[in-house]
């Protein structure tokens, strides 16, 4: 017969890996009940649910504590990655701004975007001038580049957790495809080509001209 310690070790080896944090578990459905501090998370696998006991709920879910069981429930707010409860989001998915528990594509009037949030109470100044069109740190040599501009914000709601940020925006712009240096190089290459052509012309003219003595013979009448 096995000692009590050996029996416990044998029983632990027989328990599936995903059941070891559970109070109650089945081979078919995983965890059915969790220890007091853990949350029961049910994930769908084909036509059935599989339970896991977690310290914190995964993205798109929030933890709700109850007398009998702590559960991970799905966020109902649209485009929400993490939420405080089913309708109040605390972190939005990429590309969305958080404002009063909602995830928006653009911040509402009277607010300005800062990182992933919309901030109230900031007064904005006029936009500055667009910067020079550039790409990879140069201002020519490409068909398209980008230019930016900014505007400062001031004021701010009293007690606001974030300062009023400076806003930035950018846009696509057309660049000069040829750089001035390229034009100068092209001009110098053209001059060198003209000079070589001129030299070849004079060289050919010199080689085709007859020798001096041959000129004398051909010009003397009755010469032998």
Descriptive key words:
disordered N terminus, two-stranded antiparallel sheet, alpha+beta, 21% helix, 224 residues, two-stranded antiparallel ribbon, 3 helices
Structural account:
The structure is a single chain. With 224 residues, the protein is an alpha+beta fold. Helix content is 21%, strand content 33%. It contains three helices and 16 strands. It has helices at residues 4-14, 180-208, 212-219, and strands at residues 24-26, 30-33, 39-45, 48-54, 61-64, 71-74, 80-83, 89-92, 97-99, 102-104, 111-114, 117-120, 122-124, 144-151, 153-155, 167-174. It is elongated, with a radius of gyration of 40 Å. Residues 1-13 and 214-220 have low confidence and may be disordered. Belongs to the R-spondin family. Residues 151-224 are annotated as: Disordered.
Structure summary:
With 224 residues, the protein is α+β, with helices and mostly antiparallel strands. It is built from 3 helices and 16 strands.
Strand and helix layout:
Elements: H1 4-14, E1 24-26, E2 30-33, E3 39-45, E4 48-54, E5 61-64, E6 71-74, E7 80-83, E8 89-92, E9 97-99, E10 102-104, E11 111-114, E12 117-120, E13 122-124, E14 144-151, E15 153-155, E16 167-174, H2 180-208, H3 212-219
Antiparallel strand pairs: 1-2, 3-4, 5-6, 7-8, 9-10, 11-12, 13-15, 14-16
Report the mean per-residue pLDDT as an integer: 78
What would you call the shape?
Answer: elongated
Strand arrangement, largest sheet? 1-2
Q: Count of DSSP E strands?
A: 16
Q: Helix share of residues?
A: 10-25%
Beta-strand fraction estimate: 25-35%
Outline the low-pLDDT stretches: 1-13, 214-220
Q: Write down the secondary-structure element order.
A: HEEEEEEEEEEEEEEEEHH
Tell me the structural class.
alpha+beta
Q: What is the count of DSSP helices, taking H or I runs of 4+ residues? A: 3
Radius of gyration, in Å, reads: 40 Å
Largest beta-sheet details:
2 strands, antiparallel
N- to C-terminal distance: 141 Å
Main location: secreted
Domain R-spondin Fu-CRD: 19-114
Protein name: R-spondin Fu-CRD domain-containing protein
Keywords: Disulfide bond, Glycoprotein, Heparin-binding, Secreted, Sensory transduction, Signal, Wnt signaling pathway
């Amino acid at each position: 017969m096995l000692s009590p310690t050996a029996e416990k070790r044998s029983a632990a080896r027989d328990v599936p890996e995903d059941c070891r944090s559970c109070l109650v578990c089945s081979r078919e459905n995983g965890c059915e009940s969790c220890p007091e501090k853990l949350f029961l998370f049910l994930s769908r696998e084909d036509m059935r649910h599989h339970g896991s006991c977690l310290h914190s709920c995964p993205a798109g879910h929030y933890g709700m504590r109850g007398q009998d069981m702590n559960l991970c429930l799905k966020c109902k707010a649209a485009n929400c990655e993490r939420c405080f409860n089913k309708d109040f989001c605390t972190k939005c998915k990429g590309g969305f701004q958080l404002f009063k528990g909602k995830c928006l594509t653009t911040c509402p009037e009277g607010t300005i975007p800062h990182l992933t949030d919309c901030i109230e109470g900031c007064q904005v100044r006029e936009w500055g001038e667009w910067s020079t069109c550039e790409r990879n740190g140069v201002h020519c040599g490409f068909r398209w580049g980008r230019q930016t501009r900014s505007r400062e914000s001031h004021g701010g709601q009293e007690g606001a957790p974030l300062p009023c940020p400076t806003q930035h925006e950018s846009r696509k712009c057309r660049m000069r495809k040829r750089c001035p240096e390229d034009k100068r190089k092209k001009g110098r290459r053209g001059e060198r080509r003209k000079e070589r052509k001129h030299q070849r012309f004079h060289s050919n003219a010199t080689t085709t001209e007859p020798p001096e003595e041959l000129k004398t013979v051909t010009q003397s009448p009755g010469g032998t």
